[in-house]
Specification:
The structure is a homodimer. With about 150 residues, chain A is mainly alpha-helical. Chain A has a domain at about 5-85 and about 125-140: Winged helix-like DNA-binding domain superfamily/Winged helix DNA-binding domain (Arc Repressor Mutant, subunit A). Chain A contains six helices and two strands; from the N terminus they run αααββααα. Chain A has helices at about 5-20, 30-35, 40-50, 75-85, 110-125, 130-140; strands at about 55-60, 65. Chain A has a two-stranded antiparallel sheet with strand order 1-2. In chain A, β1 and β2 (about 65) form a beta hairpin. In chain A, α1 (about 5-20) packs antiparallel against α4 and α1 packs across α6 (about 130-140). The radius of gyration of chain A is 18 Å and the shape is globular. The first copy, chain A, starts with a helix and ends in a 6-residue tail after the last helix. Chains A and B meet through α1, α5 and α6 of A and α1, α5 and α6 of B. The complex binds FE2/S2 (inorganic) cluster (2 copies). Chain A binds a DNA duplex (30 and 30 nucleotides) through α3.
Chain lengths: ~150, ~150
DNA sequence: TACTTATCCTATCTGCTTAGTAGGAATTGT
DNA sequence: ACAATTCCTACTAAGCAGATAGGATAAGTA
C-alpha cells in the first residue's frame, strides 16, 4: 500500500467538501488554496473523484463541487483504493506476479494476507463524518501556546 | 508499504538459508534456481543482505552463503524494512512530505500511524523459525490431489 | 602453476510511475 | 459580450523497479 500525493489530495478534498456538506459549492481554486495543491493537478484528481461517484459538480460561473454522498457514507479506504489502487502490499496478491507459481506453497502468502486485513481494519473503519467531528473538536480546543 | 521483487527475493533467500541452517553453504546459483530469481539480480540482493548483517559468505571454489543469525532471530519486518525501506504508507510519516505543514492539525495523521502499527503488528511478529516450521509441516502433509 | 568455481563490484539500461505543466474547449450566470 | 468556472487531452521531467553486462577477486584442486 502506498498513499501518493494524489491520494492525499483526494482525501483532503473529500474532507473539505465534507466540511461544506449541505452548505455551499467549493471551487477548485479555493480547494487548491486550502489543501495546498497545484490547481491543475487538483483538477485531474477532482475529475477522477467525480467519475468514481464521490463528488458532483456544477459548471459555469457559479460552479463548484460538492459531495455526492453523506460524509458518513464515505470511508478513507474507499477513496484510497479508488485513487491509488489496491492496498495489498505485494503484487502477488493482486494477481500480477510471475513468481507466485504455486499459491498454496508460498509460506509468505498468509503474511501478506494478514497484512492486507490489518490495513483494511484501519482505513475501512474511518469515515468522513468521524474526521469532520475530529476537525471540529480540534478547532474548539483552547490554545495553550503563547 | 510496498514489497518489491527485491524484497520478495530477499525473504525467499533468508527462508532458503534458514532451511539449510547449520548444514551446508548455499550458492547463488542453487538459490536462484530454487527461488526463481535472475542470478545477476539476486547477487545484488545477497550483497545487500550481507551488508545488513543478515547473511555471511565464503568466497572461492567451495563458497556460498549462510545465515548470520538463528532463523528465530530474524523477522519478516526486519528484512522488508532493510530492503524495501520504511513501512509507513505515506511520505508524510517518513518526514519527506512538503504538505505536512502542521502535523498536529492533519486529522489523517492518526489514520496513517494506526495503519503503520497494524502492519508492524503482522510482519514484526513472524520470524523465520515460524516459517521453517510451516514449510516442514506442509511437506509432511498428505497429497489429496491425483 | 593453471583452471575452475565461486563471491564481489560497478556501471548501464528499459519501461513504468509519479507529480506536475500546458493549452484550450465547453458551460453558465451577469 | 464577458467572466468565472468545470472539463478534456496531451505532454514532460525525474525517479524507481527490475533487471543486464562485464569483469575483478578469492580459494580450492589437478
Ligand atoms: S510468491 Fe505469491 S505469495 Fe509468495
Ligand atoms: S499531511 Fe502530514 S499527516 Fe496529513
Amino acid at each position: 500500500m502506498k498513499v501518493t500525493y494524489k491520494g492525499d489530495y483526494a482525501l483532503k478534498t473529500i474532507l473539505d467538501l465534507a466540511l461544506h456538506y449541505d452548505k455551499e459549492l467549493v471551487t477548485t481554486h479555493d480547494l487548491a488554496v486550502r489543501i495546498d495543491a497545484p490547481i491543475k493537478f487538483l483538477e485531474q484528481v477532482l475529475s477522477e473523484l467525480k467519475k468514481g461517484g464521490f463528488i458532483e459538480s456544477r459548471r459555469g460561473n457559479v460552479g463548484g463541487y460538492m459531495l455526492a454522498r453523506k460524509p458518513a457514507k464515505i470511508t478513507v479506504g474507499e477513496v484510497i483504493r479508488f485513487i491509488d489502487g489496491p492496498i495489498e502490499p505485494i503484487a502477488c496478491l493482486k494477481g500480477e506476479y510471475a513468481n507466485c507459481s504455486d499459491i498454496n506453497k508460498c509460506v509468505f502468502r498468509k503474511v501478506w494476507e494478514d497484512t492486507t486485513k490489518a490495513i483494511s481494519g484501519v482505513i475501512d473503519n474511518v469515515n468522513f463524518d468521524d474526521l469532520v467531528s475530529k476537525v471540529k473538536s480540534q478547532q474548539e480546543e483552547p490554545i495553550y501556546s503563547i
